[in-house]
Amino acid sequence: MKKTANILVTGGAGFIGSHTVVLLIEQGFNPVIVDDFRNSEKRVLKGIEEITGQIPVVHEVDVVDKEAMHAIFQQYNFEGVIHFAAYKAVGESVQKPLMYYRNNLVSLMNCIELCEEFEVKNFVFSSSCTVYGEPDDILVNENTPIKPANSPYGQTKQVSEQILKDAIDSKNGLRVLCLRYFNPIGAHESSAIGELPIGVPNNLVPYVTQTAIGKLEQLTVFGDDYQTPDGSCIRDYIHVMDLAEAHIHGMKWLSRQKDDTYEILNAGTGVGVSVLEIIHTFEKVTGTALNWKIGPRREGDVSQIYADPKRAFDLLGWKTKRSIEESLKDAWNWEQKLANEK
Ligand code: UD1
Questions:
Q1: Which residues line ligand 1 (CB under 6 A)?
Q2: In the predicted model, is pLDDT for residue 342 greater than 70?
Q3: Which of 11, 249, 274, 301 is most deeply packed, by most CB within 10 A?
Q4: What are the structural domains, with CATH classification, of the chain?
Q5: Which of 123-132, 242-251, 259-268, 295-304 has the lowest mean pLDDT?
Q6: Backbone region of residue 11 per phi and psi (left: phi > 0; alpha: psi in -120 to 50; beta: other values)
Q7: If we measure between CA atoms, which residue out of 88, 85, 92 comes closest to residue 109?
Q8: CA 290 – ligand 1 centroid, Å
Q9: The predicted structure's pLDDT at residue 125
Q10: Is pTM, for the whole model, over 0.90?
Q11: What percent of the chain is helix, strand and coil (3-state, nearest 5)?
Q12: Distance 233 CA to ligand 1 centre (A)
């Protein structure tokens, strides 16, 4: 793959997308962002510029709009696609399943068909550990059997992986890498970009930082009666910059593979951290006391899950470098930066 290759980044203004765009630019690639800013903000573009010194190329387009996407594929000679654009709120997907199926599946099918038409080979897809459902083993590797998804959102990720697999089995000439993200947290170390949840956050770490800054009153720990050492749920929290690096490694790796390659890799740290450990570590590294209480379990939560990241290391030579302390500190610095802007 040419160092200066054009890479389409759908959802490139989102949380993981924007951090990946920064790395692509820093490595000399030409990322082309497609984002309709439904779940992201234009200020992200300024942040990317602040870090890289380059104004990112952006098309304000919905990936579901195939005609508009066709024009973009026509304009650029893409060497790869990183497809982030999707809805991701578990609870909302239960309320609005069709909206999730249409958005997440049609956008994916558009991208695949356009890659076929324009002979774009390398395709990295944002999948999620949610595809494992409630696994029998808590340390999951890519061969851990897939259980029924526990939300329409999870279902869209399972079906998306299957669509990609079927497309590859039909020998369509693509090379596909599905990265199953665990729990991405943190922010760029410069605090120029980070997570921008819309409304009250569902995810733990933005809830923690917004409580600490005083935007939210109190954090509720969803259950302390799980079969875990401290009773709270265990997850694998990965720094968003480590995750962004996985995409760059993945894209370079794909470009060296044969056509019709299909690979799935876990993107996690391999370390499980409980909700209570997140709280205590946050308080320790930031010196800020958090207002929290124990509450009932949240419906649909898996008690514990974390990644076996070995295959990703074996294939890509990629592993995470940043600690949970660093991740929480970066998330906190970002929250403080946002508060100072107001
Ligand atoms: C979920 C999805 C994941 C998706 C991600 C992004 C599943 C199994 N996981 O991750 O696929 O990519 O959302 O949206 O569907 N918690 C609290 N209090 C809070 C918020 C969270 O105690 O206010 C706890 C949760 O119970 C959980 C942990 O914190 O144990 C992490 O929760 P969250 O950040 O929402 O992520 P997941 O549910 O793991």
A1: 88, 90, 128-130, 151, 154, 183, 202-204, 207, 219-222, 233, 235, 275, 298, 301-302
A2: no
A3: 11
A4: 6-186+237-268 (3.40.50.720)
A5: 295-304
A6: left
A7: 85
A8: 19
A9: 98
A10: yes
A11: 40, 20, 40
A12: 9
